[in-house]
Amino acid sequence: MFVLATEGAETEPRYFKIFEDGDKVIHVQLLKGGHKSSPPQVLKRMDAYLRKEGLRPEDEAWLVVDTDQWTELQLQQLYQWGQTKENYGLAVSNPQFEFWLLLHFEDGNGVRTSRECVERLLRQIPGYQKGAFDAKQFASGIANAVDRARRRDTPPCQDWPRDSGTTVYRLIERLTA
Questions:
Q1: For burial by CB atoms within 10 Å, which of 18, 31, 132, 157 has the most?
Q2: How far apart are CA 28 and CA 32, in angstroms?
Q3: In terms of residue numbers, what domain contains 105?
Q4: Tally of domains in the chain
């Protein structure tokens, strides 16, 4: 089982539902509390879930966040959490999760801001709106997104991408292993 605590309350959970099947159970821990989605709040939600439910040795717990509005110190706290156990992980997108979605269709070269990211994604998916899309349209591009993200992450960053990029591919590789 994969337990995912995401910054976004709609887009990320909708996307990760495409990985649910009979062989692997993915539990998406939705953020509750409106706009309370800062890295410490994402971590607090994960810690609360793990205290209550626990985690079997074969399970994995992942935090999924963006860099677009958070400080290095906030992201560092999540990185340190991800290093505490072998089955903990951190997936970070710079500038935002939509960059990972964009990689399903193209390389994302030249994207630096969240606005540019969404504009480019809209070229691929006219009418795209956060939380209001058919996640299945990304299924055929998952392998391409993993490959593109891995190529951008060369050499692999230890914690999170400082330039446009994403480490979501590391989570996807674990989900599809």
A1: 31
A2: 12
A3: 2-175
A4: 1
Return the residue matching tokens 């609360």. Answer: 48
* Highest-pLDDT range among 55-64, 101-110, 149-158: 101-110
- Say if residue 95 is preceded by a cis peptide, omega within 30 of 0: yes
Query: What pTM did the predictor assign?
Result: 0.91
Cα 140–chain centre separation: 18
Whether residue 1 has pLDDT greater than 90: no
Cα–Cα dist 95/72, whole Å: 13
Give the torsion through C-alpha atoms of 39, 41, 42, 43, to 10 deg.
90
Per-residue model confidence as pLDDT tens digits over 5-54: 988 888 998 899 888 766 666 766 554 545 667 888 899 989 999 999 99
Q: Side by side, which strands form the sheet with 2-6?
A: 26-29, 2-6, 60-66, 88-94, 165-166
Reading the block at residue 48, the tokens are 């609360």
What is the 8-class DSSP label of residue 141? G
Six token digits for residue 133: 């899309």
